[in-house]
């Protein structure tokens, strides 16, 4: 049943969010319109401001409101390490986990010829420029352990091989607290291949 054309359009618009289907979108829209019009207004104003103000960092392609993001402007970070990630969400995850204090480069995707995503679409020339500018000792390739992520990692290794001393790949394997018997075969293989000596 349709309430109104505008409500229908709003429900449809909310479904662009990942994991939001028709029922969830309907609940959100009706909540905002009926119970939280001030929240809806704040959401509209913040989203409008974000769409006009947020852009890519000129160095790493992170999202920011100025030319350079706060990570690139932080002189306390380790210039010897550059971590290449697929998305801004990956930066957030790594920063929340702690333990890494270097700089980043965001690909905004991964190589996928079937989807028409090649080196030009990922602007991998910008990555090479970033490496030449920063001159890190190590580039850490932190793409996801998918077929496309592995292909992207391999391409980056070929691209940067003569421009940096060390190129490493993040290890993938059994999570802390996980058990081998419940892990899939691919995870176990990656865990074995990414093994390291005891320190």
What's the helix count? 8
Q: Looking at the structure, what is the overall shape?
A: globular
Number of strands: 6
Distance between the termini: 64 Å
Query: What percentage of residues falls in helices of 4 or more residues?
Result: 40-55%
Provide the CATH top-level class of the largest domain.
Alpha Beta
Radius of gyration from CA coordinates:
21 Å
Overall tally of domains: 2
Q: Uncertain runs with pLDDT below 50, 5 residues or more?
A: none
Strand share of the residues? 5-15%
CATH-scheme architecture of the largest domain: 3-Layer(aba) Sandwich
Order of helices and strands: HHHEEHEHEHEHEH
* Spatial strand order of the main sheet: 4-3-5-6
Average pLDDT metric: 92
The biggest sheet amounts to:
4 strands, parallel
Structural class: alpha/beta
- CATH fold name of the largest domain, please? Dna Topoisomerase Vi A Subunit, Chain: A, domain 2
Would you write up a description of this structure?
The protein is of the alpha/beta class. It folds into 2 domains: 5-53, Helicase, Ruva Protein, domain 3 (Orthogonal Bundle), CATH 1.10.8.420; 77-171, Dna Topoisomerase Vi A Subunit, Chain: A, domain 2. It is 44% helix and 13% strand. It has 8 helices and 6 strands. The strands form 2 sheets. The protein has a 4-stranded parallel beta sheet. Helix 1 (5-14) packs across helix 2 (22-34). The radius of gyration is 21 Å and the shape is globular. The chain starts with a helix and ends in a 6-residue tail after the last helix.
